[in-house]
Design goal:
The protein is an alpha+beta fold and about 110 residues long. The chain has one domain: HIT-like (HIT family, subunit A, 2-Layer Sandwich), CATH 3.30.428. It is about 20% helix and about 20% strand. The chain has two helices and five strands; from the N terminus they run αβββαββ. A five-stranded antiparallel beta sheet has the order 1-2-3-5-4, covered by helices on one side. The chain is globular, with a radius of gyration of 14 Å. The structure holds adenosine monophosphate and zinc ion (ZN). The site of adenosine monophosphate has 11 residues, from loops.
Length: about 110
């Protein structure tokens, strides 16, 4: 756990959040500033700054993220489609330095993103 990391605190349940999915290495919760009718954040419990910091020891963790996304897409009835986004670094708009995947759906999503 990294000191002063809000997502570490949410994963550790030190900060209240509406956790909608949990496995031993992953949690998901609603984004505080939703950009779509469904906007969840899927994160590892372990502090990893961004996708560029993933290591070979994180293989199961990445599988668990995939499994979380699949189950959440079913749970939120996103069979028409959804988007999974991770911002890496300031130029991409990363504001929280704990790896997170935005799961967006419930409306038609345009491409390319801004
Ligand atoms: P990013 O800009 O890709 O780093 O995304 C960070 C996301 O975290 C933003 O969409 C914020 O709205 C969201 N966020 C920040 N703090 C919280 C929080 N306490 N609970 C839920 N979502 C948060
Ligand atoms: Zn963290």
């Amino acid at each position: 756990m990294a000191p002063d990391c809000i997502f570490c605190k949410i994963a550790a349940k030190e900060v209240a959040s509406d956790i909608v999915y949990e496995s031993d290495q992953v949690v998901a919760f609603p984004d505080i500033n939703p950009q779509a009718p469904v906007h969840l954040l899927v994160i590892p419990k372990k502090h990893i700054a961004n996708i560029g910091e993933i290591g070979s020891e994180d293989q199961d963790l990445l599988y668990q993220i995939g499994e979380a996304v699949k189950k959440l897409a079913e749970q939120y009835q996103l069979e028409d489609g959804y988007r999974l986004v991770t911002n890496c670094g300031t130029a991409a708009g990363q504001t929280v330095n704990h790896l997170h995947f935005h799961l967006l759906g419930g409306r038609n999503l345009t491409w390319p993103p801004g």
